[in-house]
Amino acid sequence: MNFKDLLQLDRTLLHNSLHDWLIAVGVVLGLGLLAAVMRRQVIRRLSVLARRSERPVYSAMVKAAQATRLWLLALIALEIGGQFLELPHKADLWLERLATIAAFLQFGIWISALLDFWITRSRNRVIDTQAAGAGSLDPFSFLGRLVLWTLVLLLVLDNLGVNITALATSLGVGGIAVALAVQNILGDLFASLSIVMDKPFVIGDSIAVDSLSGTVEHIGLKTTRIRSSTGEQLIVANSDMLKARLRNYKRMQERCITFGFTVPFSTPADRLERIPGLVRGIIESVDKVRFDRAHFKDLGGSAYGFEVVYWVREPDYRLYMDSQQAINLALVRAFEKEGVQLAYPAQTLTVDAPVRLRAVAAGPGGS
DSSP states of 111-126 as a string? Predict the structure, then answer.
């Protein structure tokens, strides 16, 4: 075929004239070029609007435009260009199917980009107000993508001629069997959603679960990871976290402290009477501590017993230990000054007088 033959536009190639082929190729290239130019222009103009405006809709549209895949649009352009040609039925059918798949994939990518933008924006807002709750959005991100791409898959199958009703029925029967097989995993998944929505604890909280305690490091789809006070990482299933009796120490507004001490029975009554007031004065002198009560509690045991209750105005454990140490040292000094001794554990053993046995000599005939 020489150059003169190429100029004969009425020549046929695969049952189509050269003129039709040129139109089809021109349509495909023109649509591809138009899509590339429009994508670039839309991103540029929306980026300017996003910088000038505080409305997040422009930034969301920029993310969606950046997620546009030109190769998917090229598949759609092939289908449009194929309309200018007389193609075999199978070829026309495959072009239509490829365009359908490309369209739904691009739609899913756009929605996924918007979902990512919403998740990222929500996470940044949470970090600004409560950094510990940023990781709680991960389950929503996972479930959102799962639902989105499930719907995209069903739409693609439906447009390809697959009987969705029969497929859904078969999947429903199979889904029951799968659900029974992975019910523990599903239980942990729904427990994760419950933790995220109800927020019994968030990342960074100091909690105690039954005999375990530590700081929450990560809330996943199946497990929660806790860093214990001794350094190791504790991994607990989310369903077990909801079943257990959980204590969240970080949400304490104040910490209530109860402690006691004893003084010997030899302590005079006038000194016993002064001890509650002495304790009260010491506790009230400690910063960030609120006195509640101090009482001569009991007479039992091996000494006189006293009970003291006070509140630390902040929940920090280190502050509590520093306050208790200051109170203990002040009590020791005050008792030394007042001549009051602290009792120590003791037991009194009383021994009766020994019984003396006197031997009696047996007389004659005695045995």
Answer: HHHHHHHHHHHHHHHH
Strand partners, 305: 262, 298
| Sequence spans of domains, the chain | 3-129, 184-250, 255-338
CA distance 326 to 286: 7
Give the CATH number of domain 184-250; options: 1.10.3900.10, 2.30.30.60, 3.90.930.50, 2.40.110.10.
2.30.30.60
| pLDDT recorded at residue 14 | 65
pLDDT of 61: 86
Q: How many residues are there in the chain?
A: 367
Quick one: pLDDT at residue 367?
A: 38
CA distance 171 to 155: 16
pLDDT at 28: 86
**304, 265 Cβ separation under 8 angstroms:** yes
Q: Give dist(CA 83, CA 19) in Å, integer.
A: 14
* CATH class in words for 255-338: alpha beta
**Whole-Å CA distances, 196 to 119, 125, 188:** 14, 16, 12
d(CA 225, CA 313): 29
- Give the residues of the chain that fall short of pLDDT 70: 1-11, 13-14, 125-140, 164, 166-186, 345-367
- Give the position of tokens 């070829």: 91
226 vs 214: CA distance, rounded Å: 6
